[in-house]
Amino acid sequence: MEDKKHGEEQLCTLEKRGNLFFLTLTGAGEHRLNPNLISSLRSALFRLQSDPSASSASALITTAHGKFFSNGFDLDWAQSSEPRLQLMSSSLRSLVHDLICLPMPTIAAVTGHASAAGMMLALSHDYVVMRRDRGFLYMSEVDIGLVIPNWFMALMMSKIGDPRARREAVMRAAKLTAEDGVRIGVVDSAHDGAEATVAAAAELGEALVARKWDGHVYAGNRRVVLREVLEAVRYDETVTKVADKAGSKL
């Protein structure tokens, strides 16, 4: 399965290789999360689930081309317009919901910077493997004068158990390398270069596929584990505040 749309800019691709699905954010840009990109990602997940093998013996790997995994929300597109910010926020929250409900294991292969909402996209996967020689996990909100949404924090609390590590990430806006991520438990493994990172994700994916879990049972258990996250993504209380921050960037 490979997604190609003639005559349109390709924001992401979905390719099946054996038992693994590879969802790739394409191009050398920052992969800012605006409704167009998020819609493309959600459409790819919808097509994935239409594959007869998607609910058994499969895994998803999400990665990106270029310097960035995702540099967060596209606030330049939103232009501090509250309706646009509402649309962007609700779109991402729907994507996170889709990933949590996906009937297979999911792995983020982070080969570049993942900032703010981009870090949330990575953490919405079951596993995170990361390139050690380039890229940071970075919650930038305190640096740029924004309040973190409750649902961001709910997701971080589900992935980072140590309160001191959460303080480092959120309250100090630490730029976490892959090895920092391994240290605090948010990254599963660190690798040299983009190719090695994606290869490690594929190896992990194959190991998970070999367990032959029922995808719907797997997703059901994930929904129980991340119940608080699913409740939190229903609402983003910060959109009005962000609308008042003209020129700020997540």
UniProtKB/TrEMBL annotation:
It comes from Rhodamnia argentea. It catalyses: a (3Z)-enoyl-CoA = a 4-saturated (2E)-enoyl-CoA; a (3E)-enoyl-CoA = a 4-saturated (2E)-enoyl-CoA. It is an enzyme of class 5 (isomerase). This is Delta(3)-Delta(2)-enoyl-CoA isomerase. Keywords: Fatty acid metabolism, Lipid metabolism. InterPro entries: ClpP/crotonase-like_dom_sf, Enoyl-CoA_hydra/iso. PANTHER family: ENOYL-COA DELTA ISOMERASE 1, PEROXISOMAL, ENOYL-COA HYDRATASE-RELATED. Belongs to the enoyl-CoA hydratase/isomerase family.
